[in-house]
Amino acid sequence: MTSPSRLRHLSHLPRVLAAGLVTAALLTAAACGSDGSDGTPGASAAASKGGTSSGAASSAPVPVDIGAVGNMSTVALYAAIENGTFLKYGIRAKLQIFANGAAVSKALQSGTVQATSSANTTVTTTSAGGTDVVYYAPILGDATIPYDDKSVALVASAKSGITADDPSSFVGKKIGDFVGGTGDDYLRTYLAKKGVDLGKVKIINLALGNQLVALQQGEVDAISTAEPYGTQIVQQLGAQARLISRGGGYVAYGVGLTSQRSYVQSHPDVIEKLTAAIADADAWTRKNPDAAAEIATDFVSGLPVTVAQASIKTLDFDPRLSGCTVQGFNAENKKLYDQKAVTANVDAASTMDVSFMQKAQQQYPELFSDLAPIPSSCPSL
């Protein structure tokens, strides 16, 4: 598993430029967009690596420390670092990788980082815990539906006897997941909707990096997990694994940039730049999934390219916020409250600021033109 606070390795020297670890001269050139190698006036050297030609950076990039969990949910964030997209919009970003959402949240609370890539449930628990945070730039998700969970899967060993068409086959079995994480939420919701008594299933708390081995060695009968681990288990175990469920609208899962409200209010220009960079990175990732997946292998410890490229097909990179987003997140918040995981039923809209992404849509419409329209079934914001 990637160790907490792992910074990008200097051995990837061409890509480290994207993280801002370059000379002042290179920073100025990239930030001012003087390269123009793609023929577009003002296009930066970083944009020619993979970002679109939208946006213009200031002459003095703003340093921002960003925290994230090392998994596939933030692949577009990794792409923004490696492709120089943040520099293009005037941000000198430094990415720190943490073991889980709780560690990321603590880093934000302590001021170690100014922004984090956080799942919606992490935003809720952080908010309910007394830290006023704002979710403003989705990295992963689909704004056209309330429940986007294609990146979450339930995989059983073939010898476990668990089958998708017989929910009772879960009774008496040991299921591994990271308790409190998205896989845990998915498992509990799946079993409840299938009419399986949770008291008759033993849930084993497993760190994400330990789940494959635990299933291989028979320590558990099945794993419920997010990407890339579901795909990795299926690929590596082959006929020894059985995909029981993927997606299905059981949970609402989204990941986006989050900052403390005080930082958002005191640095709106920085938040605008971060938001535009994420919209750009999402657009590039949608158009270049295999290349984005390869970038992810630089950040997710031990991730094979073949797994990353299969995994990315389960992910949606829609940076918009919609009424459907709020609807799905509120359903998750109520579950957390009902389970007594939080002491307040947080209104998802109160933890969001849609104005930054709306401004990005107005300024850079080309970054959103390939996305499906928000349906009328999504409530208005």
UniProtKB/TrEMBL annotation:
Top-level taxon of origin: Bacteria
Pfam families on file: NMT1
Signal peptide (from-to): 1-24
SsuA/THI5-like domain boundaries: 74-292
Location within or outside the cell: Periplasm
Biased composition annotated in UniProt, kind: Low complexity: 40-59
Keyword Signal attached: yes
InterPro entries: SsuA/THI5 (IPR015168)
Region (Disordered): 36-59
Keywords: Signal
Main location: periplasm
Family note: Belongs to the bacterial solute-binding protein SsuA/TauA family.
Official protein name in the record: ABC transporter substrate-binding protein
Species assigned in the record: Actinacidiphila epipremni
